[in-house]
Specification:
The chain is mainly alpha-helical and 87 residues long. It is built from four helices and no strands. It is globular.
Length: 87
């Protein structure tokens, strides 16, 4: 996760920072919508590509907000046995 997030930062970071949080969030939501549509189809290749796009835009949002996703996941889901109850 850390390596991919860094790749996104290196490749798109300047443009992402210029775009800002809320326009980037709009792109993220558009990708989530495309993923929702893909999950209704039988095209497994497209479905996988849409999952990848959603993850890439999530990394972008994390970068803009100064969040290390790997660290956040480690602390939330692995530390002390992870969250109790439902996720």
């Amino acid at each position: 996760i850390k390596e991919f997030q860094q790749h996104i930062q290196e490749r798109y970071g300047q443009r992402d920072a210029e775009r800002g949080v809320w326009p980037t969030f709009g792109w993220f939501m558009e990708e989530v919508g495309e993923l929702a549509s893909a999950m209704h189809d039988d095209d497994e290749k497209n479905k996988a590509a849409e999952f990848a796009d959603v993850f890439a835009w999530l990394c972008t949002l994390a970068n803009i907000n100064g969040v290390d996703l790997q660290q956040a996941i480690q602390e939330k889901y692995f530390k002390d046995g992870g969250p109790k109850g439902h996720k």
